[in-house]
Design a protein that fits this description.
The chain is an alpha+beta fold. 42% of the residues lie in helices and 13% in strands. A four-stranded mixed beta sheet has the order 1-4-5-8.
């Protein structure tokens, strides 16, 4: 079928299958899994993923057509966003065939939930200074350490875990990536409540957790290159969200603000036009990056530019909503207040704005990099993070 027919078919399926009724939060995960299974069976999950691993084997054109059909709906898929946008694509790119066979289809059908385990208390923006250790023990590895700010870890079945396997080499060269069973004995997940009142993030502790070597992703001590793959997918998937979200019920979206304000004030309309221009420019930039990726052109550091643009757009959107709506925008029980309170996190998750600017300046614009004193020093000799 052509793209118009595909878009119409997707729209009809969404009208018939997207949940519209309210249900208790306790039932949210079960309902989300049920929806993902139906989405996959209908051919709308993993649209551009390889057929042999559970995808649909279609092109970015079909993916965009589905996104266009879905923009007027709120899909209950947030809990799967890490797997679909970050960990799954990493396994598809860097995993073994056995790993792809085991993990990708259940992810696409919503049978298993994933998280990403990178940041630590002393290793946030400088991820490569992490200290969670993986020590070989026969055909297994023993993991000890802590991660923090891990989204959906309290629901996750599996996690993509970055560890340190060699302290005698510079920090970027002694890392190894693993897939970890989040239900394994010794894995402790503690939710962190933020200012929105919800626990969207977690701290995770690993106490003598064993991981089979077959769950290693990439070569030993080559984990940084695998992590770069994940971070690229993370920044592209985050930036593709465009602002605080594009769903019709997003309380800070352009359409929502227009409905609330209903004004002919030319100054307000100018600001709404500015919001539209920024949102549309980012959407087109993401579309271009997606097309290049499908064509085998690696976006590289430009993914960081997209993520930076999204963070700045989100903060602009939150500031605009606060100014235009007035005091009602910050009432504790209002959806808009929750959206505004979450906006600063976009400038942190996936890499801070400062880190993004450094990457863009160094790798896109070709500006001189910042001075570094740790690139050739063995990790054990560094005084970083929580390392004594």
């Amino acid at each position: 079928m052509n793209l118009d027919e595909y878009r119409r078919a997707a729209g009809e399926w969404l009208r018939e299958n997207v949940p519209t009724d309210d249900y208790p939060e306790a039932d949210a995960i079960a309902r989300a899994k049920e929806f993902m299974a139906k989405l996959h069976d209908a051919g709308y999950s993993g649209i551009t993923w390889a057929k042999q691993w559970g995808g649909q084997g279609l092109t970015q054109a079909e993916d965009r057509a589905f996104a266009e059909a879905a923009r007027d709906y709120t899909l209950p898929t947030y809990v799967f966003s890490i797997g679909l946008g970050m960990t799954g694509p990493t396994i598809a790119d860097r995993g073994t065939d056995a790993q792809r066979e085991r993990f990708l289809r259940p992810l696409l059908r919503g049978e298993e939930i994933w998280c990403q385990l990178f940041s630590e208390p002393g290793a946030g923006s400088d991820v490569a200074s992490l200290q969670t250790r993986a020590v070989p023990d026969g055909d297994h590895w023993v993991i000890n350490g802590q991660k923090v700010w891990t989204s959906v870890a309290h629901h996750a079945d599996w996690g993509l875990l970055l560890t340190r396997t060699d302290v005698d080499v510079p920090k970027h060269k002694g890392l190894t990536m693993f897939v970890v069973d989040m239900h394994h004995p010794g894995v402790t997940v503690r939710p962190l409540r933020d200012m929105s009142g919800k626990a969207n993030f977690n701290e995770v502790f690993f106490d003598n957790v064993t991981i089979p070597d077959e769950h290693r992703v990439g070569e030993v001590n080559d984990g940084w290159s695998v992590a770069v793959t994940t971070l690229l997918h993370e920044r592209l998937s985050i930036s593709a969200g465009v602002g605080m979200g594009g769903q019709k019920d997003n309380p800070a979206s352009l359409e929502a603000l227009r409905r609330v304000l209903d004004t002919d004030d030319p100054l307000v309309r100018d600001e709404l036009v500015e919001l539209h221009i920024r949102s549309r420019a980012l959407a087109l930039f993401n579309q271009r990056l997606a097309q290049e990726t499908k064509a085998g052109i690696f976006p590289g550091a430009r993914g960081s530019a997209a993520k930076l643009l999204l963070a700045e757009l989100t903060l602009y959107q939150a500031d605009l909503a606060t100014r235009l709506v007035g005091p009602e925008a910050v009432l504790a029980d209002q959806p808009l207040a929750r959206a505004i309170s979450m906006a600063p996190g976009m400038a942190l998750g996936g890499g801070t704005n400062e880190i993004m600017r450094n990457i863009v300046g160094d790798r896109v614009l070709g500006l001189p990099p910042e001075p570094r004193v740790d690139k050739t020093v063995p990790f054990k000799d560094l005084k970083v993070g929580t390392q004594a």
